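Researcher: Go.
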Amino acid sequence: MTDIFKLSGQKLKELRDKIRKGDFSGLLGFTKEKPTVHAAEVSALLEDLPVENVLAAFNSFPLSKQIQVFPYLELPVQEDIFQDLPNERAAALLNALSSDDRLTFLSSLKGIDRSAALDLLSNDNKKTTHDLLGYPENSVARILNTDFATVSKDMTIAEANEHLRKYHKDSEAANVIYIVDKNGKLIDDIPVRRFVLNDPFKRVEDILDGFCTRLHITDSKKQAVTMFKEFDRVAL
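Model: Structure:
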């Protein structure tokens, strides 16, 4: 199964034909605990299938795998899937998405569909989503991931690492660690590699460089792209 999704042509056609017939064995490489297939590849496989086949394939996945593949699907496909899910499963999926993926999906919904989806959110997610939906569509607020990791400058690196393990989940937002004061105000940011390569008994403030490139929440997505390129950043 390791290479099957890297192939094109006849082999992919065979896989899609199997899914059309209700045979999902070709997706076993994705459903394993340690998958040999990436969620993006599953999405690429499903995109050319009729909606009823996509729904059947998606519903064959456990929730943990649905959460992984959902953000890679096209928005119309996401909407079809979401409307097909029972409320309990839809709520679990929506609340488990990263904040930026969740907001992108909810922004695609209109009227009563958006209201119904918002009602499925936890109180914290609902408040954050309502706040961010209030910003202009072209602002960075609409693509903000609120799952970023923060530590205090007074911690040692060892203490900071323990804090991160306890209170922050593994996500792309954790590639950069943000240093905040007691009121949560941003002081500086540190790439994870600096935590790894420094003495664990050093204090966080000892490895700060005092240079923190930042965006304002009302900045445009175009401004953000420029900043990412100019400063060669993976997160801002």
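Model: The chain has 13 helices and three strands.
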